[in-house]
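Holo prediction — magnesium ion.
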Amino acid sequence: MEYLLEVLKIVDGGLKLNPEKVKSYAELLADKLETVGESKAALRIRQALAKSRSDHVATSALARLGKVPVDSESRISLADEEVCSTEDVNVFIEPNAEKLVNQFLSHLEAADKLVAEGVGIAPSMLMYGPPGCGKTELGRYIAASLGLPLITARTDGLISSYLGNTAKNLRTLFEYVMGKPCILFLDEFDAIAKLRDDQHELGELKRVVVSLLQNIDALDNNTILIAATNHEHLLDPAIWRRFAYKAKIDMPIMEVRRQMFHFFLGGFASQEDCHLLAAVSDGMTGADIRQVAEDSKREAILADSHSVSLEYLFPRTLQLSTPNELTPKEKLNEQISQTRQINTKIFTYKRLAKLFGVSTGKICSVLKNMEATENGFERPATHKDR
Ligand SMILES: Nc1ncnc2c1ncn2[C@@H]1O[C@H](COP(=O)(O)OP(=O)(O)OP(=O)(O)O)[C@@H](O)[C@H]1O
Ligand SMILES: [Mg+2]
């Protein structure tokens, strides 16, 4: 495509929050379009640029970004700042967690009303649960929903090898976020708590935890604090108590997995296929589903196709979903049997044979054996088993 380079530069500028880059490449694009006779398109771009100049940017989340403090020794940034948009962030969680998150958001949106009535707001939420299930993504979603910049603490910047510097860094970061409307996100929260394991660091850690508590207590209601961890048991109980909302973001249930397959596969798979994949993917995290979906889309595109094949997706999904302690043969048998149980009409012997890449005879014998085992009968071994 012509002008792809300019478009890519504009996208890059937008993602890196670099308005100067966006503007200069948009101007270049308008000039190029003009020279090839596309004056209407060029005019539209120039109008958009003129509008953005006159818009009062101070109201936008972008303008609230400042210069993030750095660690005085390593010069590493203490946090990353990001402006998230609801169009770019999609998060799928089970209904109870979703209800809690929505409640948190609606309380924050109604902050003025609550404060006017003398009921304080509690703008802090701790998300916990297994890795790859969407905690970081949910942090971005909260920021996008509230239209506030997300300031994610960087542990490599915060934790200093110099005595006393970690606590100092924490104070600097908290002071920085208190100076503006934003969300402070302490992602991978356990990284600080985990230091407790190290006996040599015990004294320093106590100071860090105390400093963290003091900083959290000193936060005003304008600063929203969210934290995420997948080692909640490592958190100091005193820290745990500081969070008004605690949301467990667990392994996705079947309906959530269906939504994720549908979202990540886009138009590449039918609704029916997404239902089937959801049914056989118990034990897969959101990150696993995204990876499998993206791999299969890549395969489809390379094969000049606009749909992914169930034959490609199925074995990969099953591989990630079933427990590992089984031998490969047991695993295969288990998977065949489980898939058959989902729907005997859809998963005929022929379809199963195709999906698992084995003969129909093999499917038949596996299912008969599994049935016999479930009914308490062991089939005597034949020479074929050896
Ligand atoms: N519930 C979900 N909804 C949407 N996308 C998800 C979900 N869970 C995982 N993903 C996808 O997987 C990626 C990894 O998820 P994420 O980083 O949010 O997990 P996490 O819970 O923060 O993991 P960790 O505890 O390891 O930090 C995300 O970028 C997203 O694309
Ligand atoms: Mg995370």
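READOUT: The longest strand covers residues 223-229.
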